[in-house]
Amino acid sequence: MPRTPSHPGLLRVVSSETGNFTSKAVSTRAFAQGGTITRLEGLTPGPKRYSTVQISRHEHVELNSDLLYLNHSCVPNVSVDVEKMLVVALKDIIEGDELTFFYPATEWEIGITINVKPFVPLYRQPDCIKNVKGASALPSSVLMKYPLSKHIRELLEERDRLERDRLERGMRRFSLEELCLAPRLLRDPVRCYPGNENSS
Question: Cα(180)–Cα(176) distance, rounded to whole angstroms?
Answer without folding.
Answer: 6
